[in-house]
Amino acid sequence: MGASPVAAAERKAPLGRAVVLALLAMGLAVFVISNDISAMTVAVPDMERDLGATVGTVQWVINAYTLVFGVLIVTGGRLADLLGRRRMFLVGSGVFAAFSLVGALAQDPWLLIAARALMGVGGALIWPAVVGLIFSIVPAGRAGLAGGLILGVSGVGNACGPLIGGLLTDVFDWRAILLLNLPVAAVAVLVTLRTVPADETGARRERIDLPGVATLSLALVALLVALDQANEWGWGDWRIVVLLVVAVVLGAAFAATQHRAGDDVLIPRGVIANGRFRAACLAMLLTSGIWFVAMLYAPQFTQKVLGDDALASGVALLPMMALFALTSFAAGPLYNTLGPRPLLIAGAALMPIGIVLLSFLDAGSGYGAMVPGLVVIGLGAGFFYSTVTNAAITTLDGDQASLGSGILVMFQLVGGTIGIGLTTTIVLGVSDGAAAGAEFVDGLTAGFRVDAALGILGLIAAAAAAVRRRVAARAGA
User: Fold this and answer.
1) Residues 371/244, Cβ–Cβ less than 8 Å
2) Above 60 in pLDDT, residue 8?
3) Contacts for 267-273: CB closer than 8 Å, 24+ residues apart
4) Does 286 share its domain with 431?
5) For the whole model, what pTM was predicted?
6) For residue 334, is it within any domain?
7) Of 31, 53, 205, 252, which alpha carbon lies 20 to 30 A from 340's?
8) Model confidence at 15, in pLDDT bands (50, 70, 90)?
9) Which residues of 432-449 are buried (b: 16+ CB within 10 A; e: fewer)?
């Protein structure tokens, strides 16, 4: 079937100057959030020396940000839909910038960790607000542009993070990484104020679902901390068992709070009942482990087996990260012309293929043996993440776009954490704790194959989401 004249016209219509400037501002915000995660990883040794802290303590400079961001992302999405996306973007940018400055001035590791946690609050407000704003200002016929921009800029930020962080740390010190956030946030805020219309005030003010926020947030904290610490404490440790039980109990409590009538719940019934959106979330959960595991363990291989330093291991990831960014940008126009089904299935298929290629590494492999797997994962992730974001959010009502993006990111982070936890458990079990050498590589390749199996299940879920979408489109024709 051909596209309708309206849809075809929307795809060809040029974007106005104000829209382009607004998209640039949103892109800056996405870039700084993504860059901030990976840029700090290369500065860990310098922070240890400067603050007189152990690596275990300094690691929480990174963990605190990602944990709080992942826990509050759904709440941030709901707040953006209820209170206004521009308003939440401005508030989140202010929080992010203010605590970037606090972190840059910190002389104590715990103050720095607290500042990074509060930066995570800002990020959790910014990200879903940005997604909602982009989908609202881009014409419906060019919806593919939205997801492509978000994920493409995110990929550039992640790819540039180790390079920017390493350069700033070498030329100045690690504090410069945090100070860089201030001018970037300021530009994004000023452009947004000038180009994005003020939020409309609705006639009815919905209440914030405090019981839902509390139970979901605490359940996610318990789950993510358990998954993060399981390999250090042991899966049978009483603390891990307690955390997992708490996560299950609070998750059940959250589900109970969402069954009450009305639209004031954190996740409205229409979102929960949307079968296509649920399938997209499941695909995100099952597939994301591949991406996170590749980002963590490919540098481990280059450092522990090939003998690279931290900066060189960051450069080694560039084939994957650069292709992820480029493919995400390309997926937008392709989405508008081909639709979501071929891109979604292709992306979900390429990711497990890529991790399988990495599973053939051995202790004698050189960097060249890694490149095909990294390339295939980068291509797959670019198609998958951009398309699943577009396909999932466009199934929801327009006033639920920010919430939908927050839910998707939550499933992505939980899936990544599960993937890393499983892979690390397998690595430690097969290698018997060896930190390098043939045993370490054997454990790594075994873990990669388990990730591939989960990815195949994610492919099935992605296919289900695509089929559901096609059936729904035919029913509405």
Assistant:
1) no
2) no
3) 267/74, 267/78, 267/212, 267/403, 267/407, 268/400, 268/403, 270/396, 270/397, 270/400, 271/396, 271/400, 271/403, 271/404, 271/407
4) yes
5) 0.81
6) yes
7) 31
8) low
9) eebeeeebbbbbbbbbbe
pLDDT digits (tens, 9 = 90+) for 342-368: 999 999 999 999 999 999 998 888 999
| b/e map 107-133, b = 16+ CB within 10 Å | eebeebbbbbbbbbbbbbbbbbbbbbb
- The CA-to-CA distance between both ends of the chain, in Å, stands at 10
- For residues 378 and 439, membership in a common domain is answered with yes
Amino acid 279 reads A
Alpha helices in 310-436 (DSSP H): 310-316, 318-338, 340-358, 367-393, 401-431
Read off the pLDDT of residues 185-203 as tens digits, 9 standing for 90 and up: 999 999 999 888 887 755 4
Tell me which residue range forms the domain holding 214. 210-265
20: CATH: 1.20.1250.20
The C-alpha angle 244, 255, 264, rounded to 5 degrees, equals 135
Rounded CA-CA distance 192/454 in Å is: 40
> The tokens of 128 are what?
């879903």
163 Cα distance to chain centroid = 20
The per-residue pLDDT for 389 is 86
pLDDT digits (tens, 9 = 90+) for 253-304: 988 888 765 567 788 878 878 888 989 999 999 999 999 888 878 888 887 8
Contact 337, 148 (CB under 8 A): no
pLDDT for 203: 44
Residues 134 and 261 in one domain: no
**Amino acid of residue 136:** S
Complete DSSP assignment for 90-150: HHHHHHHHHHHHHHHH--SHHHHHHHHHHHHHHHHHHHHHHHHHHHHHS-GGGTHHHHHHH
As a whole number of angstroms, the distance between CA 462 and CA 392 comes to: 11
Find all residues with CB under 8 Å of 211, minimum gap 6, and list them.
Answer: 257
pLDDT at position 242 is 95
Say whether both 96 and 77 belong to one domain: yes
Q: With respect to residue 6, please indicate whether it lies within any of the assigned structural domains.
A: no
pLDDT grade for 1, boundaries at 50, 70 and 90: very low
Residue 205 belongs to a domain: no
Helix (H, G, I), strand (E, B) or coil at 41: helix
Of 173, 198, 223, the last residue of a domain is 198
CA separation for the pair 322, 475 (Å, rounded)? 39
**Number of folded domains that form the chain:** 3
Q: Are residues 257 and 288 in the same domain?
A: no
Residues 350 and 453 in one domain: yes
How confident is residue 3, by pLDDT bands cut at 50, 70 and 90? very low
